[in-house]
Automatic annotation (TrEMBL):
Transmembrane segments: none annotated. One of its GO terms (molecular function) is structural constituent of ribosome. InterPro entries: Bacterial_rp_bL28, Ribosomal_bL28, Ribosomal_bL28/bL31-like_sf, Ribosomal_bL28_bact-type, Ribosomal_bL28_sf. One of its GO terms (cellular component) is ribosome. Keywords: Ribonucleoprotein, Ribosomal protein. Belongs to the bacterial ribosomal protein bL28 family. This is Large ribosomal subunit protein bL28. SUPFAM superfamilies: L28p-like (SSF143800).
Length: 61
């Protein structure tokens, strides 16, 4: 699973709890996209989460 290159956000793990309180494994995947971004003026492909894209922390190439 990819991680955000800016904030490090990745997948989270926990339990699915049913009505009868039986537990099974669950995985929450973060919304990470592969984008072309400028790093030191050079376009580079990297994984960035959509919250970093929306907040303007990444300048797209």
């Amino acid at each position: 699973m990819a991680k955000c290159a800016v904030c490090g956000k990745g997948a989270h793990f926990g339990n699915n709890v049913s009505h009868s309180h039986r537990r099974s494994n669950k995985m929450w995947k973060s919304n990470v996209k592969s984008v072309k971004a400028k790093v030191n003026g050079v376009p580079q492909r990297m994984y960035v989460c959509t919250s970093c894209l929306k907040s303007g922390k990444v300048e797209r190439a």
